[in-house]
Inverse folding.
């Protein structure tokens, strides 16, 4: 009998744990906010802001203010109706208390509070409360200010009236501080919150959202209001690109209680950018609204092209051809959204697909008929993409024949690992032959592969896939990863589940990281979506005192280690040298500081990181001179390591 079978009788009712109140949230926070990393930290703010946005959707809120206070507390104020403070019949408690202490409690379950809501599950406020070491909420209502305070989900001060306000005043103010026991870090990033607040301002035309950072030496404030709504959103997406047609195309329609609006404009780039939202919640994994849009777009462009004899009867543009260079925003609002997971990354309502399909079919067809000039420009853009796709196929086949790579031959610059299970394999993309040599000698060849990159990569801002296949810098990378690029990319064929960019901590290293991230973002995006791309974090300093040697990864860590090495003798000499590059490290140093899984630091690349790299690359390498000049003028003062 297996050893664990002897304990079967010990599994009884005493081992069944019931989590009371908000204990479940603190036990498994990832189930409610996705993770306890920086993304989960910022998700707390989104949950509170989403409640205010729901008031705006209902027509009762026109101003929202988000403030990062000193000490990384958050304050969110809105001028909505104010959370109800009367007694909730089911519980016999004030509604304010119920909203902040009971999961799945709110005005979003058919009680008439909200017709359309982003906060589907009614857990946002209570989850934020559970994951904050303190939270206080004030409600301005009926000429009085009601206040209630909590700590880690528990009531510390019951609801009470703390003052009077103008009888015409109404709204809610929430202040909270994330619990350090729950999160890996509790420092908020203004730029992350700004991006989210700007999205919300675009999606709610006329709504004013102010965001402010009050932390010392970081003070900044922005007031966001876009009367043009998602039209201005698309214009913003295309701000560093040249539009194919002058005006943003706007479409809107509704059916029953559902509404959809879309804005789109093609530009001269080669990648598509589709941002989709359901009830103002970003759906990065798309869903039925995106499916309806893509299907209708391809059908309409093909039908128009054939009706106008621009396309031959037997000629069909693919969806990828039609979306090349497209910037689009899809926003749908519906009563009962079916999201996948609390973090709402994908929309599952099949009825919304039909609505979006119908709106695009009718409105886009009408636009093309009424605007023959822009219509032909859009069709010619798609036809050029189709020809380039065919050229890419021929280029790929030609390169394979010339190099024999169809037989599985790997590039000369690749030093592969012995393991064959992709989940256990990692590949280091290393800048320069010198650093690659140290990496090859220092690695664990069982599971670590090394691919050397040299020289400057192709400017993917101005290149289609047919040029990439013939590029001597990028093609070895494509072959080594084994999953293809663009529409042919197949994540199942990926040979490594950790792709680690290892570049020097200087200007050149930043350049190659930006180039690689932009390439991955545009041609291998699933790598980033699946979390397979990382950036190695090499040390900046080497510190020595006698036989003791340490490394530091930042200036602050350098100073702390230096003080530690001096110990009780502040005058003791500590030798500090800055690493000029990975190539000057011995193999064992590189292993111990940057490659040893037990000691190294890796930074996982997110879609936001890749999008930021893509934006910078578009500015610096694109056709437009003015954005590049403005960027250089703004950022020149931050340069600290310029070769002269």
């Amino acid at each position: 009998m297996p050893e664990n079978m002897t304990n079967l009788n010990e599994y009884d009712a005493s081992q069944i744990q019931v989590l009371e109140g908000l204990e479940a949230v603190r036990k498994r926070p990832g189930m409610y906010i996705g993770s306890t990393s920086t993304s989960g930290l910022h998700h707390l703010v989104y949950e509170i802001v989403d409640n205010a946005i729901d008031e705006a959707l209902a027509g009762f809120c026109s101003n929202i203010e988000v403030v990062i206070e000193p000490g990384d507390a958050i304050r969110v104020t809105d001028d909505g109706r104010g959370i109800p403070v009367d007694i909730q019949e089911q519980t016999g408690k004030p509604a304010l208390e119920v909203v902040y202490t009971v999961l799945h409690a709110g005005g979003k379950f058919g009680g008439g509070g909200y017709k359309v809501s982003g906060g589907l599950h009614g857990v946002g406020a209570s989850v934020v409360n559970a994951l904050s070491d303190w939270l206080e909420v004030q409600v301005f209502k009926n000429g009085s200010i009601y206040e209630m305070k909590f700590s880690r989900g528990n009531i510390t001060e019951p609801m009470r009236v703390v003052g009077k306000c103008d009888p015409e005043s109404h709204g809610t103010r929430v202040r909270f501080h994330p619990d350090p026991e729950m999160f890996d870090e509790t420092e908020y990033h203004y730029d992350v919150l700004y991006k989210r607040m700007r999205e919300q301002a675009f999606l709610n035309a006329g709504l004013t959202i102010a965001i402010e950072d009050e932390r010392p030496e970081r003070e900044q404030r922005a007031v966001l209001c876009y009367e043009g709504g998602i039209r201005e959103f698309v214009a913003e997406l295309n701000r560093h690109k040249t539009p194919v047609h002058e005006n943003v195309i706007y479409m809107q329609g509704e059916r029953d209680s559902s509404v959809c609006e879309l804005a789109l404009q093609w530009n001269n780039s080669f990648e598509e950018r589709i941002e989709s939202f359901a009830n103002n919640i970003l759906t990065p994994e798309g869903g039925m609204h995106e499916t309806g849009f893509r299907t209708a777009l391809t059908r309409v462009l093909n039908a128009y092209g054939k009706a106008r004899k621009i396309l031959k009867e037997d000629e069909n543009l693919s969806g990828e051809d039609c979306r090349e260079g497209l910037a689009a925003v899809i926003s749908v609002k519906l009563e009962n959204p079916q999201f996948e997971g609390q973090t709402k990354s994908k929309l599952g309502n099949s009825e919304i697909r039909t609505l979006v399909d119908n709106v695009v079919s009718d409105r886009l067809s009408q636009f093309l008929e009424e605007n023959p000039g822009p219509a032909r420009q859009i069709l010619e853009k798609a036809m050029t993409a189709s020809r380039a796709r065919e050229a890419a196929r021929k280029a790929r086949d030609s390169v394979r024949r010339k190099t024999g790579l169809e037989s599985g031959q790997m590039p000369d610059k690749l030093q592969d690992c012995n393991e064959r299970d992709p989940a256990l394999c990692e590949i280091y993309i290393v800048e320069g032959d010198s650093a690659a040599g140290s990496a090859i000698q220092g690695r664990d060849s069982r599971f670590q592969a090394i691919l050397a990159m040299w020289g400057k990569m192709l400017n993917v801002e101005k290149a289609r896939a047919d040029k990439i296949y013939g590029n001597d810098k990028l093609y070895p990378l494509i072959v080594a990863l084994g999953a293809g690029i663009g529409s042919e990319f197949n994540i199942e064929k990926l040979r490594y589940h950790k792709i680690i960019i290892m570049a020097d901590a200087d200007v050149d290293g930043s350049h190659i990281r930006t180039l690689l991230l932009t390439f991955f973002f545009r041609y291998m995006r699933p790598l980033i979506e699946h979390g397979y791309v990382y950036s190695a974090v090499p040390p900046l300093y080497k510190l020595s005192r006698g036989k003791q040697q340490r490394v530091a990864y930042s200036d602050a860590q350098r100073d702390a280690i230096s003080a530690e090495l001096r110990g009780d003798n502040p005058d003791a000499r500590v030798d500090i040298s800055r690493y000029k590059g990975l190539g000057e490290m011995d193999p064992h140093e590189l292993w111990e500081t940057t490659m040893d899984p037990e000691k190294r630091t890796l930074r996982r690349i997110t879609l936001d990181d890749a999008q930021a790299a893509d934006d910078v690359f578009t500015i610096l390498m694109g056709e437009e001179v003015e954005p590049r000049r403005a960027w250089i003028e703004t950022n020149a003062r931050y340069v600290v390591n310029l070769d002269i």
About this structure: The chain has three domains: 23-224, 230-390, 410-538+603-638. The longest helix spans residues 372-403. Residues 1-20, 107-113, 403-407, 636-644 have pLDDT under 50 and may be disordered. Residues 230-390 form a domain with the Ribosomal Protein S5; domain 2 fold (CATH 3.30.230.10).
